[in-house]
Design goal:
Elements (H helix, E strand, L loop, with lengths): L3 E6 L10 H10 L2 E6 L3 H12 L5 E5 L19 H7 L5 E10 L11 H27 L3 E6 L2 H12 L9 E4 L5 H9 L2 E5 L10 H6 L5 E3 L21 H12 L3 H15 L1 H5 L1
Parallel strand pairs: 1-2, 2-3, 3-4, 4-5, 5-6, 6-7, 7-8
Helix pairs in contact: 4-5, 8-9
Bound molecules: zinc ion.
């Protein structure tokens, strides 16, 4: 068992360029393992290629980020390349499906019934179709989900609750990242057997601190969301998986628990969901 697992990283981001190997080795030298997520098919292929370069400690998740979902899904499956995702998912380094989910935070806004509103509704519908496909794929392949949700909690709960009823006996549902909902929302995710990952931004203020204080430790894991959401004291720089020990100390401090305990439990929780890492 590694010391910590970064359950949400984007190591294929351009910002790392030729320093990527240094960034990854810095994390591995701290005994931090990591999952790098794809945002679309090309980025998912890059995630797998990055994971392949390291004999252990680096894993991939493949998905289509809701903000990358095209308005027009066209005459169905082809532009989504779902069959290609399913094929890539069989790779031994692919431990989850994601990034996937719903994001209604940045949709066009305008007057009621106007063009922008219609466009926004179509974008929402496309995101829901794609998310539904990934839910199905998760059940089919028995791979956990790495979820993104912004300003779309009710829609996501509606879909997850329906899906939940058809996935009995599947004990590896997934992890919600970048949580920005209420404590009530968090409890609904826990009720659906999802874990929530905590980021470095808890060190920036009250954000996520209610979740971090109140959640049972058995429901939390850690993430860097690199290159975004940098932990203190590096908040002016890009984030890295190697900064996860600082996320750990923020979480342990907020919860008034020993860092060793939080490290051990969050790593165990991550391995319980990301079963392909545990078997690797
Ligand atoms: Zn992400």
């Amino acid at each position: 068992m590694p010391y910590l697992i970064d359950t949400h990283a984007h190591l294929d981001a351009d910002i790392y360029a030729n320093e990527l190997d240094i960034v990854i080795k810095a994390a591995l030298s701290e005994d931090v393992w990591m999952v790098t997520l794809g945002s679309d098919y090309a980025s998912s292929v890059r995630a797998v290629e990055i994971a392949e370069r390291y004999p252990t400690g680096v894993f991939a998740a493949i998905g289509l980020h809701p903000n990358r979902v095209p308005l027009d899904l066209g005459s169905a499956e082809k532009p989504l390349q779902l069959e290609k995702f399913a094929e890539l998912a069989m790779h031994p380094k692919v431990v989850a499906l994601g990034e996937t989910g719903l994001d209604f935070s940045d949709l066009p806004q305008g007057s009621r019934g106007g063009q922008e509103e219609q466009l926004a509704e179509r974008l929402k519908a496309s995101q829901k179709v794609v998310f539904g496909k990934f839910l199905d794929l998760s059940r089919e392949l028995r791979l956990p989900l790495l979820l993104h949700c912004r300003d779309a909690y009710e829609d996501m709960f509606g879909m997850l609750e329906t899906w939940d009823k058809t996935t009995r006996g599947f004990d590896s549902r997934g992890i919600l990242h970048g949580f920005s909902g209420s404590w009530k929302d968090a409890k609904r995710f826990f009720g659906l057997d999802f874990l929530i990952s905590v980021t470095g931004i808890i060190a920036h203020g009250a954000y996520q601190s209610e979740l971090t204080r109140k959640a049972p430790l058995s429901r939390l894991v850690l993430e860097s969301d690199c290159p975004h959401l940098t932990a203190m004291p590096w908040n002016l720089r890009r984030s890295e998986p190697g900064y996860l020990p600082s996320v750990l100390s923020s979480v342990a401090g907020t919860r008034r628990e020993a860092p060793e305990l939080v490290a051990q439990e969050t790593t165990r929780n991550a391995l319980n969901v990301l079963k392909k890492i545990a078997r690797s």
